[in-house]
Amino acid sequence: MTVKTILLSSALALSFVSFGIVTLDATAQTAKDYARYSTYNTPRSQGQNANGMHIFIFAGLKSHGPGAHDYPYFLDTWSKFLTERGAVVDGALSFPSQEQLDKSDVVIIYKGDAGYMTPEQRARLQAYVKRGGGLVTFHDSLCGPDPADMATLVGAGKKHGEVNYTWTATLDYNVVDKDNPIVQGMPAQIYDEAFYKLNFAPEVHPLMTVTMPDTPSARRGGGVGQTIPQMWTYEHTLPGGAPARAFVWMQGHMVDSLQDPAIRKVLLRGIAWAGKKPTSELTDYVAPPPRQARAEQ
């Protein structure tokens, strides 16, 4: 070490002391060192309802043009929206881990072709449903290679690669279960995309149907005029498991549909129902007054 280096180091040390800065040696910590952090209480996020239902959002990468299939935007906006409605929210653009599933009351899936899973992921999701975990899927999330298998989880599935869609069109809803609290206030008409050629489980309870409009895609796939459930609930029990619920809405192609205030209320009630909570759990949540800002020191 040169004299110049020694003088520079001494000057820096004196400057730290003069400003009241305490310096510590930086050393790498071992896994054993980190273990002590597990006893710390994590500060609660401001505005979060610590007693709220736990929701995980499994989203995907955007797959269509402007205003459509914007899964990352949904993850961003709905994680905030659900938190404001009293939920404890986690989420990712990747499949939930075992730890994340263990903490969840409901998993919302908004991801194209989510029926494509590795064997390990499929087993993990089935175990979650078997213990009574709730599932919610929007739009083409139930699409995959094996519709019958997907139907055991959410009540229906559709085959990837088939022409089983209308593409975007004006859809007229027919409310099948008019007394169900979930569907109250749902708009009678929506500009979105509908699906047919769905493989349904027998326990599905339709809430709303759509008669497929005459579009080029519906003509090509032979769906014109078919009346198909587009929103439903599904209660079932996997062998050896606990009762589980799923809520499905087949629209959500357009970002605007998921941002519509009336539709949001319907979806909130469906999410709460899937989590075995009162349907008003999220819609009627009243947040506590915000904490007082601390005075400047």
Number of structural domains: 1
Q: Helix amount, in percent?
A: 25-40%
- The mean pLDDT is 90
Structural class: alpha/beta
Multimeric status of the protein: single chain
- Major sheet strand order: 2-1-3-4-12-11-10-7-8
The total beta strand count reads: 12
SS field, number of helical segments? 9
N- to C-terminal separation? 43 Å
| Proportion in β-strands | 15-25%
Anisotropy-based shape = globular
Which structural traits does this protein have?
three-stranded mixed beta sheet; 12 strands; alpha/beta; 9 helices; nine-stranded mixed beta sheet; 297 residues; single chain; Rossmann fold
Describe the structure.
There is one protein chain. With 297 residues, the chain is of the alpha/beta class. It has one domain (54-274): 3-Layer(aba) Sandwich (Rossmann fold). It has nine helices and twelve strands. It has helices at residues 3-18, 31-34, 71-84, 98-102, 119-130, 147-154, 216-221, 255-259, 261-274, and strands at residues 54-59, 88-92, 106-110, 134-138, 143-144, 156-159, 165-175, 189-195, 199-200, 204-211, 227-237, 243-249. The chain has a nine-stranded mixed sheet with strand order 2-1-3-4-12-11-10-7-8, sandwiched between helices. A three-stranded mixed sheet has the order 5-6-9. The model is unreliable at 3-18 (pLDDT under 50).
Helices, strands, pairings?
Blueprint: H1 3-18, H2 31-34, E1 54-59, H3 71-84, E2 88-92, H4 98-102, E3 106-110, H5 119-130, E4 134-138, E5 143-144, H6 147-154, E6 156-159, E7 165-175, E8 189-195, E9 199-200, E10 204-211, H7 216-221, E11 227-237, E12 243-249, H8 255-259, H9 261-274
